[in-house]
Design brief:
Layout (H helix, E strand, L loop, with lengths): L10 H7 L25 H12 L3 E8 L2 E9 L15 E2 L5 H13 L9 H4 L8 H6 L2 H5 L22 H6 L19 H14 L3 H13 L8 H5 L8 E4 L2 E4 L9 H4 L2 E2 L1 H12 L13 H7 L4 E2 L17 E3 L4 E5 L2 E10 L2 E8 L4 E7 L4 H16 L6 H25 L16 E5 L3 E8 L2 E6 L2 E12 L2 E6 L8 E7 L5 E8 L14 E6 L7
Antiparallel strand pairs: 1-2, 1-12, 3-6, 4-5, 7-8, 8-9, 9-10, 10-11, 11-12, 13-14, 13-20, 14-15, 15-16, 16-17, 17-18, 18-19, 19-20
Helix pairs in contact: 1-14, 2-14, 3-8, 3-9, 14-15
């Protein structure tokens, strides 16, 4: 989602991708040696202020510096309404921060001579097929990781999000039906499906499922013993956080959303203590505490090298200092700069969980922020505050700045929706009787949905996505709005029907109502055509 749950494409959130006062807060169960370099600041005060300002129930923070763990602890509560606190061991879903683990898993296979970055994907997955035969033949393992395939932003994510009944193999097989948005290798567009393919290669070359391979080859050697590779594993642990989303502008506990078919893109659940171990080995060029290489220094450098340039967007004036001079994607990591230093980072977003992992190689500094709410400004305000402190630059009141920008952006979206609603042709009516819109519809890559009359309402159901069920209400002309029963999705969508000259339905298209809807609800990529009307079954 992405959740993941990469972030919504607003100027404010792109700036997020793009200060701490008193004694440092050190986790009692992860205390660093006295020699660890720690600037004097009050981490607790700023984190608790951010939790309150951005209405985030719980958060875990890890900071590593010069190979030492400075901070690995939790704040707030695991679940709203319950007293259990977040600890340094509390597990959070980290969504797209899992992509770095998949990249590292492939890097290890490169070291072992089992694959090469520029091998064709079809060499290792003979059944792999994209929409275009040329792209199928030319797509390399490197291409799977760097978001330049020609697929549009989040294309095909509805095959796995929200939780679907498609298998990993089914998702991969349906890539052949997704039309590209641009030419192959022409430009950057974030995707998740190709990381699912990358995870499949790890499974094929190790002879083990992705989760088992990652456990044995990465997590166990690093001592990341609490980290899990599935939501089911996380829920069976003793210390995990509940996800939280906004429902009618109020923060609420929501149900976990398993995505076992997309683990190569979003499968890791981890804690502050474990993510500190991960950042430490990354900052050390793949070298572990025992002196052995998890992956070679050469592969570490390759993962952090610029592969695909990314567009630099203009931030709001108050956030001008966050604008990078360069912005690119590596292999599982984003690369940019801040105050003259290169940053290696990534974000993660799934329902109820947002996370950031950020490293400054020149400073041997790593910062990870894990949250149990969907609020990227909360994380950005803190990691910029921490960066300012460690980089010894003039700090800004990032919490206030991001809170102001978040409020302004949300108000702007409410006003936009209000104008859209009031400017509609309110007296217009559908071209057909409502029952004529009922039936089954099919899209080339997703498959079938249905619209049926139920209890006096017309209900849309995505056949392989149980949670995408909602009632249709008329908007204008032949456009309706589907209101999903799961109100925390923030993904209500316009549903527009196009008619043939004889008055029959030719096709149906969808588009999000809100600009704040996560791009993984890629309704715009769907084109449904009718396959059956309810009356047909009576014939």
């Amino acid at each position: 989602m992405n959740t993941t749950r990469t972030f919504a494409a607003t100027v404010l959130t792109l700036a997020v991708w793009g200060a701490l006062a008193g004694a440092p807060a050190i986790a009692a169960d992860a205390a660093p040696p006295a020699s660890a370099a720690v600037p004097a600041f009050n981490l607790d005060a700023d984190v608790n202020r951010a939790l309150k300002t951005f209405n985030v129930p719980g958060m875990a923070i890890a900071i590593v510096k010069d190979g030492k763990v400075v901070v690995a602890k939790g704040y707030g509560v695991r679940k709203l309404g319950e007293p259990a606190p977040v600890s340094g061991k509390t597990l959070f879903e980290i969504a797209s921060n899992s992509k770095a683990f998949t990249a590292a898993g492939l890097a290890m296979l490169v070291d072992e001579g089992k694959i090469a970055w520029d091998d064709p994907v079809t060499k290792h997955l003979p059944g792999f097929q994209m929409y275009d035969s040329y792209v199928t033949g030319q797509m390399t393992i490197r291409d799977l990781l760097v978001h330049r395939s020609g697929l549009g932003l989040g294309a095909g994510d509805l095959l796995w999000w929200p939780s679907t009944q498609f298998s990993t193999d089914e998702i991969i097989s349906r890539l052949r039906y997704i039309k590209p948005a641009t030419s192959f290798r022409a430009s950057y567009a974030y995707d998740n499906l190709l990381y699912i393919v990358a995870g499949k290669i790890i499974a094929e070359k190790t002879g083990k499922p992705w989760g088992e391979a990652i456990h044995e080859r990465i997590l166990a050697p690093l001592g990341m013993n609490g980290t899990t590779t599935s939501v089911a594993e996380m829920l069976a642990s003793a210390d995990y956080s509940a996800p939280h989303s906004k429902i009618n502008d109020q923060i609420a506990v929501v149900k976990p959303m398993p995505v076992p078919n997309a683990v190569g893109a979003v499968g890791i659940d981890t804690s502050a203590e474990d993510i500190a171990r991960w950042m430490t080995v990354l900052l050390n060029g793949g070298k572990m505490d025992n002196g052995k290489q998890l992956f070679s220094a050469r592969q570490a450098a390759e993962m952090w090298s610029e592969q695909t340039p990314m567009r630099i967007r203009e931030p709001k004036p108050a956030l001008a200092a966050t604008k990078p001079n360069f912005y690119a994607y590596g292999l599982g990591f984003q690369l940019r700069d801040y105050k003259g230093r290169k940053l290696v980072m990534h974000g993660g977003a799934l329902q109820g969980f947002y996370s950031t992992v950020l490293m400054v190689p020149e400073e041997k500094l790593g910062i990870a922020i894990l949250t149990n709410a969907e609020n990227s400004p909360a994380m950005a305000s803190l990691y910029y505050r921490i960066l300012d402190q460690y980089l010894k630059v003039q700090p800004s009141d990032w919490i206030t700045l991001y809170a102001q920008q978040e409020a302004a952006a949300h108000q702007e979206e409410l006003e936009r929706q209000g104008k859209e609603h009031t400017s509609r042709a309110v007296d217009s009516k559908p071209s057909l009787p409502l029952a004529s819109y009922d039936g089954e519809y099919e899209d080339a890559w997703y498959g079938k949905i249905s619209i049926r009359a139920e209890g006096g309402k017309h209900v849309m159901r995505f056949e392989r996505t149980p949670d995408l069920t909602g009632e249709l209400e008329h908007f204008q002309h032949d456009t309706f709005i589907v209101r999903w029963k799961e109100r925390n999705f923030n993904a209500d969508a316009y549903v527009t029907f196009a008619l043939n000259p004889d008055g029959s339905i030719e096709r149906m298209k969808m588009a999000p109502v809100s600009t704040e809807t996560d791009f993984s609800y890629d309704f715009r990529d769907l084109t449904f055509t009718p396959v059956r009307h309810p009356a047909d079954s009576a014939k």
